[in-house]
Amino acid sequence: MSFTMQRDGEICVVDVEGQLIVGNRQELKQKVLDELDRGERRFLIDFARTGYIDSSGLGVLVSLSKKIREQGGELRLANLNDDLKTLFELTKLDTLFQIADSRERALQSF
Amino acid sequence: MDDAPATGVVPPLPCDARGAAALDVTLASDVSLVEPVVAAVVARCEAHGWPERVCRLHVPVALTEAIANAVVSGNGADPAKVVRVRACVDAVAVVLEVTDQGGGFDLAEDAATGEEEDFLEREGGRGLFLMQRLMDRVEQWVAPGVGSVVRMTLGRGGAARAPGGRVA
Fold it and tell me: Do B57 and A52 touch (CB under 8 A)?
């Protein structure tokens, strides 16, 4: 399980590799908040290599979305597979986030 | 199930009659220990030919929720307390049981329904909701001298339908 961050222009892109769950969600949260504190305002989280997400992981995404918005920023999600899409639909979080089918589309949407 | 937890003797797991659960693990109350246990149960589901969706969504998410709840809420993340995870997996059903040393909780009271006004923007409180939506049946007991037991069951027929429906 790991989170790698890179910049694509003005956008911070985080790749979530493996699971986003109770044991590692704080690491993701801190990584993004550190960049927010440094003045970054555009974030994309790419789930192309993500296994599953639990409610703690979903909670961190909600928390980050709120904090980023409060700072005048934007958060996008990309590459949810069918299982992750189901999770977001079950919890209605597909209505809270802007979710793109691909990284490219997500980057273009900013 | 929407009843308060039953108190008393916990019925045996289906595989208890065969002498041993497919998996029987006791772990310290540490969330970093959750994932390997979940992976072991998923491997058994895969070995029994359960659909990908069950192996990638239903079982790992529901079981992670149950164990995390046991560690954090049941045992208060007290390293001196343990969580026991047992699983019976065969071609017909997946039965997952998580026991902590806490006093139990009320699933009917504590589980979100998804209709709460703040459901969307809340940061927590989706764990029990997901357990109920992803598994066919969630049962709970408070076993005196043992702690709180949560048992989740998924049947072949249930797994084939889209998650979100509930078996009556």
Answer: yes
For A56, nearest residue in chain B (alpha carbons): B124
Side chain identity at residue A79, one-letter code: N
pLDDT tens digit sequence for A9-31: 999 999 999 999 999 999 999 99
Residues of chain A found within 8 Å of residue B45, distances taken between Cβ atoms? none
First-last CA distance in chain A: 27
Question: ipTM of this predicted complex?
Answer: 0.91
Q: Looking at residues B88-105, what average pLDDT do you find?
A: 91
DSSP string across B119-160: TTT-SS--HHHHHHHHSSEEEEEEETTTEEEEEEEEEHHHHH
Query: Looking at CA atoms only, how far is residue A58 from chain B in angstroms?
Result: 8
**Is the CB of residue A87 less than 8 Å away from at least one CB of chain B?**
yes
